[in-house]
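User: Predict the full complex structure for these chains.
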Amino acid sequence: MASIGKPIDRVDGHLKVTGRATYAAEFALPGLVHAVLVQSTIAAGKITGFDLAAAQSMPGVLLIITPDNALRLPTGKGGSQPVKGPLLQDHDVVFNGQHVAVVVADTLDRALAAAARVKVQYRRDEAVTDMDAVLAQAYVPKSFRNGARPADSRRGDPDTAYQAAFAKLDATYVTPIEHHNPMEPHATIARWEGDRLTVWTATQGISTAQRTLAGHFGIDPAQVRVICPFVGGGFGCKGNTWPPVTLAAMAAKMTGRPVKLVLTRAQMFTSNGYRPRTVQKIRAAAETDGALQSLRHDGFNLTSQAMLGEFSEPVALASEFLYACPNVAVSHKVVATNMSLPTYMRAPGEASGMFALESAIDELAATVRMDPLAFRMRNYAENDAHEGKPYASKALMACYTQGARAFGWEGRAAGTRATRDGNVLVGWGMATATYPTNRQSAAARVRIGADGSVLVQSGTQDLGTGTYTVMSQVAADALGVPVSRIRFELGDSALPHAPVSGGSSTVPSVAPAVAAACAAAAGKLRDMARADPQLGWGDVDASSLQVQDGAVIGPDRRIGIAALLARHGQSSVEAVAESGPGDEKKRFSLHAFGAHFVEVRVDAELGEIRVARYVGAFDIGRTLNAKTARSQLIGGITYGIGMALLEETHVDGETGRIVNANIAEYLVPVHADVPAIETILVENQESRSNPLGVKGAGELPMVGVAAAIANAVYHATGVRVRKVPIRIEDVLGSA
Amino acid sequence: MLGATVTGLALAPQRSRADDTSPAPAPAAPVRSAEAVDIVLQVNGSPLPLTVEPRTSLLDALREQAGLNGTKKGCDRGSCGACTVHVDGRRVVSCLTLAVRAQGKAITTIEGLAVNGTLHPVQAAFVAQDGFQCGYCTPGQIMSAVALIEEGHAGSDAEIRSWMSGNICRCGAYPNIVAAIRDAAQEG
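Assistant: Here is the predicted structure of the two-chain assembly.
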C-alpha cells in the first residue's frame, strides 16, 4: 500500500505529454494585449531623451511606457526580496540590457516591431565591465546570507599550519557568468479589476511574488493573487520577483487591459539574474600521509551596482566543514560592476565553490601521491567541526564506496596520461557533493470527501521537480489510500502558504505540512467515530483507530468514511496544518551528500573532450519517488556537465553587452553530450533532519560535477585546468 | 496514476475566461493592417481560418491566435526545438516557418498526436520513462521523436542522441528521453 519511495509515474505526466499543461503565458484572457521590453544599449550613464514618434505611429500600438510617464511606485516597499530595480523610476542606466521602456500593442508582432523602433538618447559614462580588473576594490557584502552569519570564518591557525606542512597548494580557480536558461522564457500576464491584481507568472515563489507586487503598488497582499500551476524550469532565475513582473502589472494598470509580457530569449540574459563570475583563491596543505593541515578559501564574486540590490555567492561554506582539518579560514567578497544583479543558480555557492575545493583536493592528493578517493576518505569528517555539531545523518562514506564499486574505481591507473585508446586519452575523475538541507515553514489543507476522494492544497510550486507527484504520495500514505484518490493543488497564492521553491527546500518544507494536515484530517475522522454512540468506541484509545482504505477501522469493525460523514450530516472533513523547523538546526548539522565518478575521453590531437561514462551516488535521505528522484539526479549531473565543458556568458568589455545572449551560442548540453548515467540512491532513513527525513535532491547532484570532470581531464591529459568551462584550447598540445 | 488532476486546468482552461468574475474588458479585436492575409491552415486534420500578417510565424499563429499552446516557444530562433511540429510529415521548427507558407500543408501539433484520448506510443513511453521534468520542451521532444522513428533514425542510442540533438531539455532528462524513444521504436 505504501507509495512513498516507489517509482510511480508523474501525476501530471499526461498533461505534459499532450501539451495541455498550462504555463504562465498560455492563459487566455479576453482583451489581452502584448507588452515588449526595450533595453538599454549602454552599460552606464543617463537617458537624456526618447524619440518615440516612429514607434507610436505604428499600427496597433497602445502605449509606450518610459521613465517619463511610468507609474510612480511607492518607495521603500516591496522590500521582501533583494531585487530593487530597474522599474523605470529614474533615468539612470547601470547595465547594458537594462529595461528602459515598455511597448504595448494589440498583437505580439506589432509590439515587437514597435519596440525595435524606440530610439533612446543617452549620456554615456564610464562602465566597469571587467571584474578581474577591479578585484582590488572588492568589499565585504553588507548582508551575507541575509545577515544570518558573517562573511568570513576561521578556526585554528591556517597560515602557520600552511607554512609548516609538507605538501602545499596555492591556486586560483575561476568560474564564469552562467545563465539558467530554463526552456520556458519568463512570462507574466497581469490583470487589474479595480484595485485587485491577478498575475499569472512563471515563478518559483508565488508568496514572494504576491508580497513584492503588493509592496510595489502600495496595496495589501490580499489584493494580489498569483497563479502558477506549471513552471517551465526555473533553476533559480524565477526565484525572485524580477522587474518584468511589476512592469507587466504597471502596463496593465496604465492601459486598463490585461497585458502579457514574455521575455525574449535574449532578454533572459539581462532580466532575471545569472550565476556570477567567481575568482576563488585556495591555499591548502597536507602531511605526507594525506592528513589535511590547513585550508584557506577566499571567494570573490561579481555583482551589480548596489542600487539594484546585492548578491553574494557563498562559495566557501562547504570548505568550512567538508573535511576534517584543524585549521580553516574562509572569506567572501563582492565586486561591483555595470552588470545586472546576479542571483541564485542551481546549487548557488556550492556549484562554483566545490569546483574550486574539489579541484584543490585532487591537486593535493596528486602531490602526496595518494588516490583521490583514498585522500578524501583519509580526511573524512565524522562531525561538523565548523558548527561543532554532529551531522543529522551523513552517508557519504557509503556514497564513496558504492559509487566507486559501480564505477570500477579500483582499476584506476595511478599516474596521468596512463590510459590510451588509440588516439584518445582516457581519464577518470571523482569529486564529493554536498548541499545543505533547508526547511521553512509551510502549510497545507486537506479535504476528505464522502466519496473517499482527497483534495490536498498548498501554495507551493512544481518546477518539474515532481511536487505534484510526491505530495500526492505523501498524502496517500498518510491517509491509507491509493495515489489515484489524491488530487494535489498548488501554484495559487489563495492556497495555504508555502515557501519559495529554492535551496532544495520544497520537499523538506511542504511534505511535513501535507503529512500533518492529513494526520489532522484523519484525527478528525477518528474523533467523529469515537463520538458516535452507535460505534461504541467512546472508550477506545484514538491510536487504536486507523484511517485506511476510505474507512475508519476499529478493534472490532470498520465504518466507511462516507457513512460516518453522513451520520454527522457532513459532506467532507477538512483540516489545515502548518509545519516548520524545530530545533534540528540547533542540534545538528544538516546536509545531503554524494560522490561523482566520471570517465572522460580526450582526443589527443584535437583536444575534444567527451564525457563517456558517469556514476553518481547520493545520500538524499529518504527517497519519496525513485523515478522523479533519479530524474533530478541525472538532471543535476547534466547541468554540471554543461558547467564543466560548455557554459559561459561572454561580455564585451567595451560596451558591457552580452555577446552570446541566445541558446545557440550560449552552449548548453544537448542529447549528444550526455552519456548513460548510473545513479545510486544510498539507503539512509532518519527523521532527525525533518519529520520525513528528506534532504532535497534538486541541487546536490550538480555540486562537484565540474570538479570531477576537471579531475578526469587532468588524469587523462596531465593538464590541470583551474577554470570552467574546460575547452579544447585548454588541453590542446597535451598530446 | 492519472486520476490526480492539477490546479491549472481547474483555474483557467485555455481559450476560456480565466475566471468568471472578471468584468468584460473593452472589445479588443486587433486593428487590421493593410498587409493582413486571410489564410486557412490544416491543423490536426481540421481547417483553421486565421488572419495573419506576412511576418507572423506558424508558432505565433498557433499559440497567440489559435490557442494551441502545446507548441512551445523557447528561443524563437530555431535553436532549441521546443516549437517542433510536423508539416506534411516532416519535423520543422514552427518559429522559423511563416504561417502564410504553411497553407495547403498538413500540420500536426502535439494536440493532434493522441487519438481519441489514447496516447501515441511515444507519449506513453515518455510518461513511463519520465522523459521530462518541467514539461516545457516535451511537446517538441515528442514531435521530434515521432518523426525520428519514422525516419528510421532510432537504430541505436547513439543514433537517437545524434538525431535528437536539436531538441534541448534544460532539466536534463536526456537519458530518459533516449530510453523512451528506444522503447517506443521497439514497440512500433
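The first helix of chain A runs from residue 13 to 17.
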